[in-house]
Amino acid sequence: MNDIKEKYQEFRNEPFPEGIAGEEIHGIDLVMLDADTAGLLEKFIGYNYKLTRTDFDLLKRLTVELKTVTKELNGQSRRYFATLWNLADRIVRDLTETKRLIENSDSENLHKKWRQHFDRIREILNEWDPLGVADSIEDEYDSINFAAYSALLQNGNTESVKIAIRKYLKEAMEIDETDEKLNEISEKIKNAVQQRI
């Protein structure tokens, strides 16, 4: 399983393909597909290579969507989503064979804590609301949420959170934000997670 972790970390250093932010294929939003799958891969690694039954079922569905969109893409976009598809599919096949799903109370508590952190970060991002749409689309910034929370879990500092948010804003939303604002948001995210640990 360590090679999945290594390959996933290599993959996260790849930029989101240019020119497809906001695009849909057969009704599948490519940015959300990327973010949702990445969030589940982060959970899989963070939960010691396991998933809850609910997350496992969701990853299976996302794997089908990844296969669908990959076949319709070309060039860098196709390579990017093919890599994500292969990682997700490998995890689905592994969990299908081993049945290593989270069922004990300790792991359930870990899942609840992850959900609490995710929900608090969502509140912070919706208060910031760089697109001005949070009043009507509650989960608009969940992709940033996954990126920021993942960076915090891996590195534990506000600088890594700021880098993750800036990268996502530029690559997926084509938004530039000031260092001052990104520092403020990153600090809020770090403090919110630490207060709930």
UniProtKB/TrEMBL annotation:
It comes from the Bacteria. Keywords: Plasmid. This is Uncharacterized protein. It comes from Persicobacter psychrovividus.
